[in-house]
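User:
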Amino acid sequence: MKKLITCLIALFFVLSANADDGAQPRVSIFSTSTDWQAVTGLTLNQYTGRFVGDRKLVGRGLVLYYLDGFPCYGLGYGVRVWVSPDGKTDNDLQIACVAAPTTINFAYRNATRDADQATTTGILTCPVKSRGRDLTIDLSDCMVGPDWDKYNRDL
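Assistant: Predicted structure:
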């Protein structure tokens, strides 16, 4: 009986110590975007985005990750694009939309072609020109938003 009470007291202290360890809870993200067709009653169409380079923004290379936003969501095989210093890309942007977008947001970072695992720098907002289901994103027209660390300053 003495061992049971000792174990319960020890367990109480362990649980109390771990209850407020100061860690931020992780947020689970569930995308509702795949049901937009049902929600809006509009038909989803596939759009292909191609890029016009900008040497100043691209530098030694620019990795772009499409950020979902109404009226579009990214298709898994076409949400990451690397743009070379001479404007060539390793992929086309592939998105599904209920209407052609007028602007698109990307998480971005300057990096060489195979540097996929590093953290992105911040957000890039780009106007889009559409011709049917073909989109053109001119990187010289994009607006560089705040770096990610600026989002956490007020937390």
